Amino acid sequence: MSTSALDVTWDADSHGHTVVSVTGDVTVGNARQFKRQLQWLLLAQPPVLLLRLNNARFVGQFGVECLAAAQRCAGRLGVDMRVAAPASGAGRVLHLTDPADPLLS
Predict the structure, then answer these.
(1) List of residues 6+ apart from 37 with CB closer than 8 A
(2) Where is each STAS domain found (predicted)?
(3) Nearest to 70 by CA among 58, 83, 54
(4) CA–CA separation, 79 vs 61, rounded Å?
(5) How many CB atoms sit inside 10 A of residue 50's CB?
(6) Angle, nearest 10°, between helix axes 61-77 and 88-97?
(7) What domains lie within the chain, and their CATH numbers?
(8) DSSP 3-state assignment of 71?
(9) Cα dist. 26→15, 43, 64, 65 in Å?
(10) 75 vs 28, 78, 100, CA distance in Å?
């Protein structure tokens, strides 16, 4: 099975928040890598971890599960994790999962 293209980059903003940009597809083939990257970023315990999914073309079931696991980890670590500007496809998947989830507010 080949992995789909996924690029995850991050930087700190002027407030010390970690801003993570996801580009490409989050699929079964690269979900484990995505999950490890999110966990690694959370271990630094930034006050806010902001995920920008506006360039994510596709976030499949395993990508949503990674986001949910990262949200649980963030809660245990006291990190405020947010998803900003999801692409329309990614946003639909996330809202179908649980439109009232605080991750999406």
Answers:
(1) 8
(2) 16-105
(3) 83
(4) 24
(5) 18
(6) 70
(7) 6-104 (3.30.750.24)
(8) helix
(9) 28, 21, 9, 11
(10) 25, 5, 17
The token pair that represents 8 in the structure block = 């995850």
- State both tokens at 61: 């079931």
In whole angstroms, give the CA distance from residue 43 to residue 70.
11
pLDDT at 92 over 90: no
Per residue in 10-25, pLDDT (tens digit) is 999 888 899 999 999 8
Query: Which pTM was predicted?
Result: 0.76
Q: How open is the CA angle 5-11-14, to the nearest 5 degrees?
A: 155
